Amino acid sequence: MELRSEAGSTHGAESAAEWCRAYIETTDVAEKLSPGPRPPEEPESVPMPALRLAGPGRASSLRVQDRAEKIPRPGALREASAVAKLLHVFLHHEIQAAELGAWAYLAFPDAPMEFRSGLLRIVDDEVRHAAMYGERIGELRSFYGAFPVRDWFWSRTLGATTQLQYVALMGLGFEGGNLEHAARFEGFLRAAGDERSAEMVGQVGREEVSHVRFAARWFSEWTHGDPEKSPDFERWRAELPPPLTPEVLRGKPLDRERRQRAGLSEAFMDQLEGFVDPKNPVPRSQADG
C-alpha cells in the first residue's frame, strides 16, 4: 500500500494510515482537537511500508520552545489564568500522545494487528482528553496557543527504533508517570476549589490506567517476562532512550494501586520506587514538560 505523498486533512483520509499521517502533519489547531472520522485500519494482508515521520505539524500561533516554563504552584490555582496555564500543559501532552500513537502505527507496520488496533484506540482517547481540556480552557477565557508549548515527548520518542522501545517509553514511562501526576494535580485543583477541572484531570488519570496496562502487556509478551515480576525492571530501564531514567518517569508517592491495576508487578513497583540515579539526584518531573 502506498500513502499519498502529501498528507491532507484527516477529513479526506481514505485509510487509517493516511488519517494518522494527516493528523500528525496538520498545522490546524482545530483539527488536532477535533479530527475527521478515521477509516478502519488496513488488513494484515495489505503490505505497508514503515514510515517514520520526523516530527509534527505545528500552527504558527503555537510558540514552541525547548525549555519548559514553570507550572503554576498549587496556591496559585485559585486564579483562572493559572488553571488555564496548567491545563494547557496537559492538553499539549495529550496532543503529543495522540500524535505519537499515530506515529507508532505508521512506524511499525509489521507489529501484530492487535497491537496496532490498540494504538488507534489509545489515539482516540488522547484526542478526546485534549478536546476536554480545550473546552475547559475556553471556559476559563483562554485558548490552546495562549501559552508556550514544548514537544518533549516527541524529542524523546523519535529515538525509539522498535515497538518494544516505544511501549517502554510512552506507555510504561510517560503514561505510567502520569498515573501519579494526575492524582496529585487533581488534589491541588480540588483544594483550590475548582471541582470541574479536578474531575477532568482525575478522569484522564483513571482512563490512562488502561494505556499503561496495554504497554505492560505487550512489553511483557515481547520480552517473555515472568508473570510474577513483569515487566522486567532492568530490561525496561535498558530500553529507555538516554538520558531518561526511571526516576524521571514516576511521581511521588508512587500510586501503587493504580499501577497494580495497570498490570505492574510488586517487584517492578518496588524497584521503580527505590530507584535513584546517582548522576541526576534531583531530576525534573515530566509533568513540567
Concise account of the structure shown:
54% of the residues lie in helices and 0% in strands. The protein has 11 helices and no strands.
Structural class assignment: mainly alpha
Q: Cα-atom Rg, whole angstroms? A: 18 Å
* Percent range of helical residues: 40-55%
Got a strand count?
0
Summarize the helix and strand pattern as letters.
Answer: HHHHHHHHHHH
Report the average pLDDT across residues: 93
Question: What composes the largest sheet?
Answer: none
User: What is the first-to-last residue Cα distance?
Assistant: 37 Å
Low-confidence stretches: 1-7
Relative strand content:
under 5%
Q: What's the number of helices?
A: 11
Shape: globular
Provide structural commentary.
With 289 residues, this protein is an all-alpha fold. The protein is 54% helix and 0% strand. The chain has 11 helices and no strands. The chain has helices at residues 16-25, 29-33, 80-107, 113-139, 152-157, 163-191, 195-207, 209-223, 233-239, 256-261, 266-274. Helix 6 runs antiparallel to helix 7 and helix 6 packs antiparallel against helix 8. Residues 1-7 have low confidence and may be disordered.
Features:
289 residues; mainly alpha; globular
Set down the secondary structure blueprint.
Layout: H1 16-25, H2 29-33, H3 80-107, H4 113-139, H5 152-157, H6 163-191, H7 195-207, H8 209-223, H9 233-239, H10 256-261, H11 266-274
Helix pairs in contact: 1-3, 3-4, 3-6, 4-7, 6-7, 6-8
